Amino acid sequence: MNEKTEQRMVRRASALGVMAMLIAGAAPGCGSSDSSSGKPGDGDPPGSIPDPDTVPPTVVSRTPNDGADAVSVRAPIQVKFSEPVKLGAKPVTLVIGNQELATTATLSADATTMTISPNSPIVTPAQVKVALEDISDIRGNRLVSNALWTWTAPLWLAVGDTVRGNGYQSTTIAVGPGDRVSAASFYNNNADPPRVIVHSIEGNNGKWAALADPFDVDDRLPPKLAVDRDGTTVMAFGPKSTEKLGLIRRWSGAQWDAMGTEFGPTAPDSVRFGLAAGSNGKLFAAHQVPDTNSNSHVAVRTFEGGGWILLGDTVDGGDGGYLTSMTLDKNGIPYVAYRSGSATSLEAHVRTWSGSSWKPVGSSPGKNTSTSFDLAFNDAGTLFALITSAESRRSSSRLFRFDGTNWQAVGAPLSTGECSYLSCGSSCLSSGTDGHVVAFTQLEGASPRAFEATKDGWTPLDLPPGNSRGVQACSADSRGTVVVGEIAADGSRINVHRLNR
């Protein structure tokens, strides 16, 4: 029995005793009340009982927990009280570092739970401190205990446990509804043929689950992944074969099931894919096709009626050209990035599907383009391109945005490094929140770097924690939250992190 319950029982007993005294006093010859005041108590109306409730409300629980060190900025901030409360003029103070952040506090229907909503985003990394102030119960007793707690919101949150394996070399990442994340990686890359394994997880907590056993692939690139609107992982890959056929598989929950027939043959030098799933349920696959002159073209297909339907004609890539990436806009319209031209004079190009043909998206945003050319939309619908180019054995990564007519450079180059022919480094570009895109570069002879950019410029971003070879792949969920995959420096494990924005 708590203190407040005891007080209520004492109060009821006192009321019964006073009523008995009043009844007895009203009987003939049994005395009378004070004739000078005509009241049963000093200043109280007849039959009134003074309220003995002086116990203040207390905090029963808090979310996040006090001292938590890996809290998402999307996590609810809530306090549960021991009894119904009412909020004063300033019930809460929330401080990030030394700066107060304005908040809005609301109560549940039974007035026992308070939700605290910051009026502006919490910018990570941040140490958050919350003080409960002008809060009282319905009798006016003010909250005085358990009124202060803190937690930490880091820049990067680990996604699940570490995936441990043997000789991981590279990885690709896809994110879908329900925070479903899938990662495909080379497993035991020293084998011939190399093998790939796909893991999947939902949410930040829990363990990664392998989707079937490792399987043989082409020795150039790991598969491309997508997660459809139902949360199902889809994979495009090239098996280890001389025909270099492209295959699409969907995870059934127990095995990889074929989706339609194979593509093929693909480009003779490598198997390169683009794969994207739209929120409208459409699934697109892009791949290379060669011609009799050894030129490489780009074909884009969509899955309809149990088969892959070609969208228009192929896009000419020319000698040494190939597909590098594909993305969808908010309406599910595909955009493909590819390079074209001769092997010694390459240009970057972007095209989009008009409904009947592939239309250019501006003129070429970059020349002398190496193997790295990535596309991404930010949450405001602006298209960005991250391009690595080479001049005189020096490479640089630059960010461009499409203004509706032309490609515009965003600030200075993100990074510079050494360059050998067609081996200048790697990059990754992902959509973000609040008009941002997030870029990762790792050029030859340079350290891996990360950046957060808008249409007006970019700022450096700390890389995810841990000793790794840098970011190998990146993607974003439906809210624009970036997820990245990294391979440990010794190739023993995959680390996946989510940007805490």
From TrEMBL:
<feature type="signal peptide">
    <location>
        <begin position="1"/>
        <end position="26"/>
    </location>
</feature>
<dbReference type="Pfam" id="PF13205">
    <property type="entry name" value="Big_5"/>
</dbReference>
<keyword id="KW-0732">Signal</keyword>
<feature type="region of interest" description="Disordered">
    <location>
        <begin position="28"/>
        <end position="68"/>
    </location>
</feature>
<protein>
    <submittedName>
        <fullName>Ig-like domain-containing protein</fullName>
    </submittedName>
</protein>
<feature type="domain" description="SbsA Ig-like">
    <location>
        <begin position="53"/>
        <end position="152"/>
    </location>
</feature>
<dbReference type="InterPro" id="IPR032812">
    <property type="entry name" value="SbsA_Ig"/>
</dbReference>
<dbReference type="InterPro" id="IPR014755">
    <property type="entry name" value="Cu-Rt/internalin_Ig-like"/>
</dbReference>
<feature type="compositionally biased region" description="Low complexity">
    <location>
        <begin position="29"/>
        <end position="39"/>
    </location>
</feature>
